[in-house]
């Protein structure tokens, strides 16, 4: 799972990228902490109230206190925008306007601060404040905007959100300046049964527990609040982990050595390069102890208590995502076609496609959220002013000029990277000219009117990079080509109803009769003809043509011109450069033309068909040109398709309905949260390089990409809901079809516990993630009824292993206070079943060799008394050296050892010096790349690039197979030789023991015989003794048993 500059790792070990923007802590200007006098006014009530406006020291809340000491506050994380000057709101009522006007002679707009907040893109509320000078207004506007979009506001740690909850309690005090206990109880729960739990926890923590009680801030510091948190949640699951690590029940603290072992074995990504990301050492462990251990005596001893262990788990040093992923971590200097671009469909709509409302404000909200491509449908206005509307529907229109002004004001407030305006133009030439003039006047230098000198509009030239187009607005509109203005293409037959075109291209009315809604659905949204270039000469070869409008048509069912875009006027056409929409004919034709500045749009059905029929070609097309995919016209409810489907094909502009925060939109918002929320995400390398080949339906590993394995154990939840209901958690993965897993992994339901449900599930295993760079995890907590509580989107690349907390979000991606899950995550490279030992040898050859030697010594205990090697130790060593030299020279000179790249600037040997060498052959990775790559142009062949091959590809290589077979044969020969020698020695030992038994038996018989004769004769007879034959050892026991004994004579 490679990331730029190395492997994705833990937050504490990930290094900064070359163009990193620091993950800045929240810093509140002193002027905002001190406060300022404003008049807060409300249009509905018509009242202006003098207030003192300030921000708390941590930058969590904007609060205001009136003259009666009544206070209210606003969570800064919910602020969407802050405006002053021309775009600030001012009272419509003249009397109210007079009330709020005070101070200098600056205009009311210049002295007004308008704060916009909301929980979605549609329902936005406004809070307005007026001050005495425009300098004050500007200071507060800029500072509040900076605080609202600080990355820490959304991506803070569990401990930060705990501090945020405590801060809110200290702000909402009574008139005596004390904290009401009922506020503390209300923060954690809203039901009667759980209230008793909170009251009991307050008692255990030594705090007042009555609902009418209060407590002073001096007696309720953050440490007291943290103790209350521990009493309420218990965190027995964390204590269990701690006790397992400490080992001895009597020991209460963890040593620095134990912490080092835990950091390296559990919390560290095993795939990290050891040079770029060194292992934790004692110094690192002592730093953690010093930072999180509350007991100073333990710090001096270098020990960590459970309290400190829990604090570390909740800290920024234990984030679930590497902090570098939130920074500007992608290379922004590549062609525009190499990025996924956050895109909106029918941006003006706030609801239903046919009956919903249009809004200027939603353009601002989409751009502020990082959307970099918005759509504008222009139609002729009744007052000779162009409007934006969903044609042939009940949707009301909005002035085009106001929309363009909103775009100019909001385009680059949260991201400096280029914005694409996707025009669908149905206006007559006169109103088109107005649109062009408005663009020039309103956008000014932001408008990209001419192509860059370094990137000309010619075949073979690549699109410029996002960095080169910073703070530029790019127009996407049909381009006028004078040499073919007499022809336009045929389109599929639509419904018959439409307004009548006039001779000069005007449309008498853009409003269709109420029952003719289907006319709109017969336009570009269902036929995919939005981007027909009716005048491109190259298109004429691939499409039929017919006479221009006004001439008789042979097809009475031909689509009326009013439903299609009108021909581009000269003025608007002159503004179009790098994004010129054309009708799509085939991938082959696009490759032949080789024009990066031409792009095509497809509705989701057309794109799906192309993806199924020609997946590889679709990916290759998107390496050089832009493509846009939008929802089918049948999605009247403004629902969304799953964008992952088309990201898998490399489509850049996957346009969604931002007004609907469904699963698809949640995934889109979650993915584009990374790379500093620029709205641009660099596509994986194999989706950019011409010499690489990707099949989006691949089930096996992709050349040069190491598949991954991810295991997630959902252990517990904290403050998931203030209701007394059952909860459960689902874990899904989105990526290639082979990687996507949905509705499979779900915990059991924990009934009646929203405070600290303990799931303690077995790991959910995603065994083989073919393309980790395209995959993401979705964690979602639900009430037992199926209602979503909160979710989180996590990229697989950048996921940190070990025990981690993850804070959940709303559908809009705003953080849920205190709502978190506690997980155990394991990430590693995928290893096929049965090859784990071989993979271990490749990953850690020194350890593998050491284990082999250790096993040999253990076997020697059983066999060393059965073999007696001759010669001195020096002679044995010389023999072994000679044998090794002979093996090396038997197959020719040893070839360089194959290496496996483990990160930038380092590699790991596949075999050690004492291993059997690989025979002379080209490097395995180079051989595989040549076999599986598309032929490179000559200029690319001179570039040497080392590509790490996946393990299964290496094992499939002919040379590796032969060497493996050779080693197996040698091993089998050695085993048989050893078994034979062992059997011989055992046989000899058995025969020797048998001989001794026979000899002893014969001696006994001889003694008995002589004793019998002595009893009769009284003397020994030497003759009888010598005459008695003795059974030899060679005759064996049977010879002795069968020999007939001599009878003694009386």
Automatic annotation (TrEMBL):
PROSITE patterns: C2, PIPLC_X_DOMAIN, PIPLC_Y_DOMAIN. It is an enzyme of class 3 (hydrolase). Residues 572-688 form the PI-PLC Y-box domain. One of its GO terms (biological process) is lipid catabolic process. Residues 528-544 have a biased composition (Acidic residues). It comes from the Eukaryota. It is found in: Cytoplasm. Keywords: Calcium, Cytoplasm, Hydrolase, Lipid degradation, Lipid metabolism, Metal-binding, Transducer. This is Phosphoinositide phospholipase C. It comes from Photinus pyralis (Common eastern firefly).
